[in-house]
Design goal:
The chain contains 13 helices and 12 strands. With 365 residues, the chain is an alpha/beta fold. Strands 2-1-3-4-5-6 form a 6-stranded parallel β-sheet, sandwiched between helices. The longest helix is centred in the N-terminal third of the chain and has 17 residues, at 17-33. The protein starts with a strand and ends with a helix.
Length: 365
């Protein structure tokens, strides 16, 4: 009987794309092996740590621990493996490569899977340079060590997209055993010809953005609202957890509507002529891109928004400057708010059922 210990870590961004992808991974394993055969272990960092805990964390950093991993967590995990009859361990982040190394050296019979949400070495480097917070430059080295260990000691390593798989091979001389992009449950439906809603032919275009209030979203939105919004004729609806706080970051006008909580996003997606994705930082793949495709929306966004997605001109316009955003938005002219090409790409590459088949293959179920 297969029994899996699923290990991940929670942080202040768990509700964002990485957290949603981690949830998809766990649910996929549970679907294939049964919930009763999958136990999850979450590394939850403490916000208010005692001096002893801070010293312990510092010692852990010296040892190369990342993602909230500590000696105490390692001991707990090894006890669970020894006492719980686990056959497999699924490590849901390459920042925990040192854990893969420890498990492998203690238990050669355990099959270890590691999922790469990013190439963390590159991501940590970009974050450090972008923020100018060079006192945390040790993150770069820590990420590199952990990813190298993940590649060396895991039986199966999984990349989020082809670019990451190639970079993994370049940095760590390890080919990814599988590529599993962002996917989600398909709780929408195809639109018939009779149900199509025409786009705004003239005048103000309806534009939508979905994303929580966190720095990766706020930075791009603030830039768009300050630099581009005054130059285009659109009504911009922004929705997401905590997004009411965005009102203090910009000058609100009647061109912007903010929602912090929406029971059903369907009407907001369906009413939009297109979805805007002015994302200028972050790593991995963006969940909001897949969700927009699910609803059959044409997209206008930065290259960062489309990393890992096989888009074309029928699905999206890619903008690398203020000038390009203004030009693409002003030139937007499509017959209907629903875009079949976007919906078909979602069904082909980004629905939960598609990725479940890949999980089935790598788990050898």
């Amino acid at each position: 009987m297969r029994k899996v210990l699923y290990i991940t870590f929670a942080n202040e961004e768990s509700a964002t794309g990485g957290g949603q992808c981690a949830g998809r991974n766990l649910e996929s394993i549970q679907c294939l092996l049964g919930k009763e055969n999958v136990v999850d272990y979450i590394l939850s960092p403490k916000k208010d740590r005692s001096l002893i805990e801070r010293l312990s964390r510092f010692v852990g950093v010296i040892k190369g621990y990342m993602g909230g991993l500590t000696d105490e967590h390692v001991a707990n995990i090894m006890k669970m493996i020894d006492d719980g009859g686990f056959t497999d361990v699924f490590i849901d982040n390459s920042q925990l490569g040192s854990l893969a190394k420890f498990i492998r050296r203690k238990r050669s019979d355990i099959r270890i899977f590691t999922f790469f949400h990013n190439i963390e070495q590159d991501y940590m480097q970009s974050v450090t340079i972008e923020s100018g917070d060079y006192k945390h430059a040790f993150w770069i080295r820590g990420a590199a060590i952990n990813e190298k260990d993940a590649c060396r000691y895991s039986d199966c390593v999984i990349a989020l997209n082809r670019k990451d798989a190639l970079r993994m091979a370049e940095l760590y001389s390890r080919e990814a055993d599988a590529v599993i992009p962002i996917t989600m449950k398909d709780n929408y439906h195809d639109i018939s010809q009779e149900q199509l809603i025409p786009c705004s032919k003239c005048g103000t275009k309806e534009v939508f953005f979905l994303g929580s209030y966190f720095p990766g979203n706020v930075k791009g939105l603030k830039w768009f609202c300050e630099e581009i919004l005054p130059e285009v004729d659109i009504h911009f609806t922004i929705a997401g957890a905590g997004m009411d706080a965005f009102a203090k970051d910009i000058t609100l006008t009647d061109k912007i509507t903010l929602y912090s909580f929406v029971d059903d996003l369907t009407s907001l997606y369906e009413n939009a002529d297109f979805v805007l994705l002015p994302i200028i930082s972050g790593g991995g793949m963006k969940v909001k891109t897949a969700e927009s495709l699910k609803y059959g929306k044409f997209l206008i966004g930065t290259p960062e928004a489309f990393e890992g997605y096989d888009i074309n001109d029928e699905i999206a316009s890619v903008c690398t400057s203020k000038k390009e955003f203004i030009r693409q938005i002003n030139a937007f002219c499509r017959p209907y708010k629903y875009n079949m090409a976007s919906r078909e790409l979602f069904k082909k590459n980004h629905s939960f059922d598609v990725s479940l088949e890949t999980f089935k293959n790598i788990l050898a179920v």
